[in-house]
Design a protein that fits this description.
mainly alpha, about 85% helix, single chain
């Protein structure tokens, strides 16, 4: 493998990992939004979604 291929592989690997991370975050948000619609306590949603109370309050405001 030459230097250009190594750099290309590293960039692609980084983009892939970033995509996975972004997908996980979006999944957390979708679950939290469903829980918010069911009027579950923010503390409970935070516990299971691993999202901060501040983020949940933001999502709740967006739903209104």
């Amino acid at each position: 493998m030459n230097k250009a291929e190594a750099i290309s592989n590293a960039v692609m690997s980084t983009k892939f990992r970033e995509g996975i991370k972004e997908g996980r975050e979006l999944a957390k948000i979708e679950v939290a939004q469903s829980m918010l619609k069911d009027n579950l306590p923010l503390e409970t949603i935070s516990k299971y979604s691993k999202l901060s109370i501040e983020k949940l309050e933001e999502l709740k405001r967006e739903q209104e």
